[in-house]
Amino acid sequence: MKSVLSSRSMTAGLMAVLAATATIPAAAQQSLPPAPYAYNQLENPADEAEAQDLMLTLRCLKCQSQSIADSDAPMAGDMRHQVRTRIAAGEEPEAIRAWLVERYGDYVSYAPSVSRTTWPLFAAPLLLALIAGLLLWRRLGKRKNNAA
Question: How many other β-carbons are positioned within 10 Å of the β-carbon of residue 96?
Answer without folding.
Answer: 23
